[in-house]
Amino acid sequence: MRTLAMTLIGFLVLGGTALAWGYKYLEPADMKQWLQTGKEMVIVDIQPAKDFATHHFKGAIETDAFPTETEAERQRLVKAVAAYRAKPADVVVVCPLGKGGAKRTYDYLKESGVPEERLFILAGGMNNWPYSQLLQEK
Questions:
Q1: Domain that holds residue 25
Q2: Prediction pTM value
Q3: C-beta atoms surrounding 40 within 10 Å
Q4: Which of 96, 133, 122 is nearest to 27 (CA)?
Q5: Domain tally for the chain?
Q6: What is the CATH number of the domain that holds 18?
């Protein structure tokens, strides 16, 4: 019973983030607040180029790294690591759905020296972002 309780605590939403199997997710409402208050952050957008061109967050780093499975795709994240080193702030990974590609990006950024306490994945990804007025669109 105690193990079950501890597992459930790991999934609770705390301060706008949810912990799920070692990954921290930032809920859209909390990302909206961060954007509206001008919170300093590094937004790492791994959407395919055509999707980024259609809609993205202002100031997001375009990497075109989705699905972040190959070494060539991971190398596209080097500029995101450099941006974090230049401006150590919270890092939000944005991908189409906030699933596998986002997790692989999170892992790569963590392995590259971005502290895990600063790493977040946008829950639901760009395809489920409900606040289109906050996007840069084509």
A1: 2-137
A2: 0.84
A3: 9
A4: 122
A5: 1
A6: 3.40.250.10
